[in-house]
Amino acid sequence: QLHLQESGPGLVKPSETLSLTCTVSGDSISSSSFYWGWIRQPPGKGLEWIGSISYSGSTYYNPSVKSRVTISIDMSKNQFSLKLNSVTAADTAVYYCARPMVRGIIAPFDYWGQGTLVTVSS
Amino acid sequence: EIVLTQSPATLSVSPGERATLSCRASQSVDSYLAWYQQKPGQAPRLLIYDASNRATGIPARFSGSGSGTDFTLTISSLEPEDFAVYYCQHRSNWPYTFGQGTKLEIK
Fold first, then answer.
1. Residues 74-113 (A) with a CB less than 8 A from some CB of B
2. Distance CA A77, CA A105 (A)
3. Which of A114, B34, B78, B101 would give a disulfide with A108, using CB separation of 3.0 to 4.6 Å?
4. Best interface-test mutation with B: which of A45, A52, A66, A109 has the largest number of B CBs within 10 A?
5. Distance (Å, rounded) from C-alpha A20 to C-alpha B34?
6. How many CB atoms are located within 10 Å of the residue A104 CB?
7. Is the distance from CB of B61 to CB of B15 less than 8 angstroms?
8. In the 8-state DSSP scheme, what is residue B91?
9. Please, which residues have CB within 8 angstroms of residue A76's CB and are 6 or more apart in sequence?
10. Residue A86 confidence (pLDDT)
11. Rounded to whole angstroms, how far apart are CA atoms B51 and B68?
């Protein structure tokens, strides 16, 4: 059974970098040929797809954050990561990692982590 | 960027009745539209993909229809556990945006 778990600091200061990791169990990132994605949800608001990375390392970012975001894969740890720099209060959200339902496509997502709340505040 | 507009924002329906939720795209997304259900404090759950296909384990009372710019999620007979927020998402072109959500509440 596939399981995704987000981890990282719950509090980040304005202008600093938000860093989160998604640990995957029950599947191998390197051999599964899936894309792996990050989605966020500000408190009380809707969902925003941030970006995705392929098993080969190709990345796809939402233009709304493209200049500030980096998604990477660490196959040795079976993890993928999100870095968002120059954060502001508008980046406060629950951040989810997720995997699509089939290989070779970026969405829709049928496996999700539980989500982790990141607050941007001094 | 394709904008998905969901209506209504809030829908009040009694258990056992039918609920019909709408998602309209600002340009054609063919049939590349999915629906998710989200309950408080939980991650979204995929219900429908490619407009009309139920995801694994989704009860038959959930159905999706539409193509192009107009889509509908229908819940034929509401169960107590169906009251939640529902989102649509397209995968037609970059970026893959979500609608703003419809809250389905108990009448």
1. 96, 98, 101, 105-110, 112-113
2. 23
3. B34
4. A109
5. 26
6. 10
7. no
8. -
9. none
10. 97
11. 10
Average pLDDT on B88-105 reads 95
Is residue A32's pLDDT more than 80? no
Amino acid at A77: K
Give the burial string for A37-53 (b: 16+ CB within 10 Å, else e): bbbbbeeeebbbbbbbb
Give the residue, B103 or A75, on which the prediction is more confident: B103
Q: pLDDT digit string (tens) for A34-79?
A: 999 999 999 999 999 999 999 888 999 999 999 999 999 999 999 9
The DSSP letter of residue A15 is T
Instruction: Mention every residue, 6+ apart, whose C-beta is less than 8 A from residue A61.
Output: A50, A51, A69, A71
User: Quick check: B95 and A64 CB within 8 A?
Assistant: yes
CA distances, A55 to each of A59, A62, A112, B95 (Å): 10, 18, 17, 19
Q: How is residue A45 written in tokens?
A: 């608001």
Q: Which of B20, B11, B27, B12 is nearest to B70 (CA)?
A: B27
Closest CA to B47 of B56, B4, A41: B56
Per-residue pLDDT, A56? 85
Q: Read off the pLDDT band of B41 (50, 70, 90).
A: very high
